[in-house]
Amino acid sequence: MKTFTDNTGRTWSVTVNVDAVKRVKGLLGVNLLEVVDGKLLEQLVSDPVLLCDLVYSLCKPEADARQVSDEEFGRAMAGDTIDGATTALLEELVGFFPRERRRLLAKALGKLRTLEAMALKAAEDRLDSPALEKEMAAALARLGDSSGSLPESSVSTPDR
Fold first, then answer.
1. Quick one: CA dihedral 57, 63, 64, 67, positive or negative?
2. Torsions phi, psi for 114 (to 5 deg)
3. Helix (H, G, I), strand (E, B), or coil: what is residue 5?
4. Predicted confidence band at 148 (pLDDT cuts at 50, 70, 90)?
5. 6-63: pLDDT as tens digits
6. Second label for 94, Cα 20 to 30 Å away, from 2, 19, 44, 80?
7. Which DSSP category does 157 fall into?
8. Distance between CA atoms of residues 151 and 160, nearest Å
9. CA dihedral in degrees (41, 44, 46, 47; nearest 10)?
């Protein structure tokens, strides 16, 4: 069992077992066992809403006991909290599977994290690029070349 803390300070337990897999499938129509092929893993990492719905489904017995609705749970999920929930979920998923699948999932997670880091680095490099600054300056110059006034409308405005 892994835990994370939401933005209200509540600590949640994430447990992946057969009961939890069945609950997620029943509530969301998502088969957690498909995480090994990588597509579901990519979806979860790229779609924070799906990820939070899935984590809520896993935490539902605890949420019900605390009388925390899906909406309340969702309101407490943003920023670093989503990272904590993601880590808890992924670590639990890895631990759920038998040895060989666990090894494959751990490898897929490693590749996904590498890919994510590369994408973030590429985006950061693009934002830091002098070429981007030149493009922005050129766009501003083009805007400055206009007279600054709006073109007159071809539709006449009646006097009041």
1. negative
2. -65, -45
3. strand
4. low
5. 999 999 999 999 999 999 999 999 999 888 777 888 888 889 999 999 999 999 999 9
6. 80
7. P
8. 22
9. 160
Q: Which residue has the higher pLDDT, 127 or 4?
A: 4
Q: Are 23 and 58 in contact (CB under 8 A)?
A: yes
Per-residue tokens: 155: 């539709």
In angstroms, the CA 98 to CA 12 distance is 25
Q: Which amino acid would we find at residue 110?
A: G
Structure tokens at 153: 């409308």
Phi and psi at 47, nearest 5°, equal -125, 90
Separation of alpha carbons 139 and 16, rounded Å: 51
Give the pLDDT confidence score for residue 36 in this predicted structure.
76
Averaged pLDDT score across all residues of the chain: 85
Instruction: Read off the pTM.
Output: 0.70
Sign of CA dihedral 20, 23, 27, 32: positive
Q: How far apart are CA 80 and CA 7, in angstroms?
A: 9
